[in-house]
Design goal:
5-stranded mixed beta sheet; phosphoprotein; 567 residues; Alpha-D-Glucose-1,6-Bisphosphate, Chain A, domain 3; 18% strand; binds 1,6-di-O-phosphono-alpha-D-glucopyranose; alpha/beta; globular; 4 domains
Length: 567
């Protein structure tokens, strides 16, 4: 029977990918991550899961092989749901159970029982479709083949290999595929470059720039896929003078080593190949799979240090711009020209958001929500608004537009084109529509984020200096602490409070109380085997010292009790 055929296909395929000895795989902040050479079984099984997800939803899903900001030897999996967002959290426990099933037989049993639970008929008529992509890691090709075999182990499933792409490109393709529109990489580049051009054309003429806008922009590609894609995209862009450094094509540096958004943002240092010659220039940095973006400037005083423009400040720039466009539109309403365009606008941040950014956003009159770390949480919250902004301080974020709002906005734009073409309110409507096309609706995207930043700076007539001065960051410090078992830390309240181990929170409170504007929290990373410590205070020395003393407490509570790790 079909069922028996399915069973033996799955079992025979699973036998080709034995579970590595002594490993436990956990579904972290953004999917599975581990040493790339240990992931064949996990990726094979994730392929099976992706096929089940596609069958369950009757739509195309995506599977991306990447470990993003992690070192080159690591690899991992991100699964994209039909809307292009991260796989539903409801399925994470099953993903984990499947990844850890001890042998092929029990894996197959789990697949069948899970399929039954979810009402998925195996060996049936329905066929699954999965888009596969990978970043530039050396283990990527072999893992992609394993994923493919996992997908093909479910009868009737088709895997389409998109090749080496950025994570946001793959998510974008999945989303578009399910909307029934064109999904090639070229379509992606066309959509970005066209909406960018549209925004640039809508910049006020005769802007007072004081010659402060420099069209030069230098981008650090983290020695990864993002730099290569930007090289391709930039050929379609007018009005920007982009120089890409650390693109993987140049073949010099190692992925994420001394380069990339995580390195720049966490360490507040310039990436490799940037130095005194770049002082004063606008610089940006992507992470390894180009879903994070930060800006920076080499400091005049010390060319090793930088002035960082993090995700919070990108968010603030976007929020300011968008609010202005909405105000222009709503002003035209008060003159009774059109129907009122009501919109619920909200901002989503995490505990890592600099306190000064949150103050700024609230002063703009925006509602600010806080979620735990991880795009999967922020994205979900942001989708509750008509216009939902979300950004993590590390540079991962985007702006989401609700379907309802876009329909209203399009209608309004059409009305204005008829009654008041070329008016300020008409332009504002066109700008908002262009932003909704430029900025990735599936997930944070360094390429589209970069183009939006550039278009907004141009619109405002702002230099990097003007942007930096939007507000002053509170001094902060991030540290990592290696511990015996990071899962021993359990947090609550969007990760701002520690529940376990008992007594740690009290110690953090005690330290924090010593500093003016002190704020500090700790949490286990979901992508690295460490505890992260974040501290903020009114001076850099204070933030550093708070982070250091709390790190000592973390080590005291959770560090290696015996010196076995030294032997
Ligand atoms: C992933 C997630 C991000 C998260 C980051 C760090 O980023 O997509 O939302 O901020 O991990 O997570 P953690 O602090 O748990 O290690 P990426 O760029 O590595 O995919």
């Amino acid at each position: 029977s079909m069922m028996a055929e399915q069973h033996s296909l799955l079992l025979n395929s699973a036998r080709l990918f034995p579970l590595p000895h002594g490993m436990i795989f956990s579904y972290g902040t953004a999917g599975f991550r581990a040493d790339g050479s240990k992931l064949l079984s996990t990726v094979f099984r994730a392929g099976v899961l992706a096929a089940l997800r596609s069958l369950r939803t009757g739509s195309t899903v995506g599977l991306m092989i990447t470990a993003s900001h992690n070192p080159i030897g690591d690899n991992g999996i991100k699964i994209a749901d039909p809307d292009g967002g991260m796989m539903t959290q409801d399925w994470e426990p099953s993903a984990e159970a499947l990844a850890n099933a001890p042998d092929p037989q029990s894996f197959v049993e789990l697949v069948f029982s899970f399929a039954k639970e979810e009402g998925i008929s195996l060996g049936g008529e329905r066929s699954a479709e999965i888009l596969l992509g990978r970043d530039t890691r050396p283990t990527g090709e072999a893992l992609l083949q394993a994923a493919k075999q996992g997908i093909e182990a479910i009868v009737g499933s088709v895997a389409l290999d998109m090749g080496v792409v950025t994570t946001p490109q793959l998510h974008w393709m999945v989303r578009r595929k399910n909307m029934g529109v064109r999904t090639s990489e070229n379509d992606y580049f066309m959509q970005l470059s066209e909406s960018f051009r549209c925004l640039m054309n809508l910049c006020p003429k005769g802007i007072e720039t004081n010659g402060s806008i420099d069209s030069r922009l230098i981008v650090d590609g983290a020695n990864g896929v993002g730099g290569d894609k930007l090289e391709q995209l930039k050929k379609l862009l007018l009005g920007l003078n982009i120089q890409v450094r650390n693109s993987s094509k140049h073949g010099q540096g190692i992925l994420n080593e001394g380069v990339g958004a995580d390195y720049v943002q966490k360490g507040r240092v310039s990436p490799c190949c940037f130095g005194p010659k770049d002082i004063g220039l606008r610089c940006a940095s992507f992470d390894g799979d180009a879903d994070r973006l930060v800006y920076f400037r080499i400091s005049e005083a010390n060319s090793n240090s930088i002035d960082l423009v993090d995700g919070d400040k990108i968010l603030s720039l976007f929020a300011l711009f968008m609010k202005e466009q909405l105000q222009i539109l709503n002003k035209s309403d008060s003159q009774g020209l059109n129907d009122v365009l009501i919109s619920r606008v909200g901002v989503v941040q995490t505990a890592y958001a600099n306190g000064a950014s949150t103050d700024y956003l609230k002063k703009l009159g925006l509602e600010v929500a806080v979620t735990p770390t991880g795009v999967k949480y922020l994205h979900k919250k942001a989708a509750e608004y008509d216009i939902g902004f979300y950004f993590e301080a590390n540079g991962h974020g985007t702006i989401l537009f609700s379907e309802d709002f876009l329909i209203k906005l399009q209608g309004k734009s059409n009305d204005l084109a008829f009654s008041n073409a070329g008016s300020e309110s008409h332009k504002a409507a066109l700008r908002l529509l262009a932003v909704s096309k430029l900025i990735n609706q599936a997930v944070g995207d360094a390429l589209s984020g970069l183009l939006l930043v550039e278009a907004v700076l141009q619109y405002m007539g702002w230099s990097l200096q003007n942007w930096i001065e939007l507000y002053d960051d509170l001094p902060s410090r991030q540290l990592k602490v290696k511990v015996a078992d990071r899962s021993a830390v359990i947090t609550t309240n969007a990760e701002t409070q520690v529940l376990q181990p008992y007594g740690l929170q009290e110690a953090i409170d005690f330290e924090t109380g010593k500093y003016h504007r002190g704020r500090c929290f700790v949490r286990p990373s979901g992508t690295e085997d460490i505890i992260r410590v974040y501290a903020e205070a009114s001076s850099q020395e204070a933030a550093d010292s708070l982070a250091r003393s709390v790190s000592h407490h973390v080590d005291r509570f959770l560090g290696f009790k015996t010196p076995h790790h030294l032997t």
